[in-house]
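Appendix B. Raw example, untouched.
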Amino acid sequence: MEIKSDEPIIVVKNLTARFGSNVVFENVSFHVKKGEILVVVGESGCGKSTLLKMMIGLHKPSAGSVTFQGVNIVAASEDELNNYRQNIGVLFQSSALFSSMMLGENIALPLQEYTNLDSAMINMIIKMKLGMVNLAGYENHYPSELSGGMKKRASIARAMALDPIVLFFDELSAGLDPVTAVELDDLIIKTNEALGTTMVIVTHELESICKIAHRVVMLDKTARGIIAEGKPQELKEKATDPRVRSFFLRQLPENVYQDNAYGK
């Protein structure tokens, strides 16, 4: 898939996450191009979700900056942060739908919070967004009445309520069966191609990464930072770093085999 533009919409520079004496990552720098699907990968504990939360302004980094359209959200005022939040949509691992509210009410929340639209217009947007994720007619259903995949799609509809410039997804396919995961991948591609929405996605699903990603950034726990960046197919075929090859080829590095052979 071709990226819509080389223009960076988000610039991450020298970002450091430190909790007490524990440094999760440090001096992480990369950019997100306008209209691209950037996927963040790496082993458990390398800081993927922490990085995502810093990019959306939920966590403050120990050092560094995250710049969105020229505004550093790390040092932004409350008004600037509110403007940023209106331009992004977020989906966490748990879907985070409010269980006491029907789907229509869940999707209406950001519209009621950030716009002055009347109820008729909000209801029209709710129907449109649910239709985009193949949940037309489900506005009066509660999350408990939906399957895991339907909940994820409903969460995408809510994340898209304000027509965001950037969507952030954390482990979109976690806990889903393979067929449902493929359907979500197709929805991601369709949304990106139809609307040009920029996406930053954290996932460990290799098949999904190779299918949806324009570009990949790989974090490593030991290196405490980025060890690879590029198109997934290029990383899979040309990477020389054993950690990158191990991830994309689903093979343990040779030293691990040797250690296991000697019972270490």
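End of appendix B.
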